[in-house]
């Protein structure tokens, strides 16, 4: 099964959630498009502690820390979805991490969410609590559903707001897979703790 990790905003915690999901399912991990010198694949590799998961290289890796379409433009590259091919052994679960939110552009015609469509992935949506997050979360859910994709559930990352979370879950009808607290430090111990929680709620 392919699971596509996306979020309602940039820096919402997709890489952390991807690491937790990879650890919980002993899955493989892949970020097809990376912008910026620091690789999220390296972060995930450092945060998991199992011997089963494989970490695959990006199809596109840009040094410019910007939206993929702009980073590609700066580096005189055009992102071609036909050249992004799923890697490795398809017998294992694969966690695919997106870039930014669902409508972050990849080129003149495609968005990040088109990768989830191409690889027939079930969506894991990361949401944060801030002023406007209900709107951003519900709009993201509507766009995902409009494209015919299945959403496994929501992960709330950061400080709790029960009123916001309850409204989102009630209105969307989605399941809360996990709630991640504002941790002082993110390390293997923290990832493993949440991986156990996620595994226990996974169906």
UniProtKB/TrEMBL annotation:
It is an enzyme of class 6 (ligase). GO terms for molecular function: ATP binding; dethiobiotin synthase activity; magnesium ion binding. Mg(2+) binds at residues 15, 40, 97. It is found in: Cytoplasm. It catalyses: (7R,8S)-7,8-diammoniononanoate + CO2 + ATP = (4R,5S)-dethiobiotin + ADP + phosphate + 3 H(+). Signal peptide: none annotated. Substrate binds at residue 35. GO terms for cellular component: cytosol. The keyword Metal-binding applies. PANTHER family: DETHIOBIOTIN SYNTHETASE (PTHR43210:SF5). This is ATP-dependent dethiobiotin synthetase BioD. The gene is bioD.
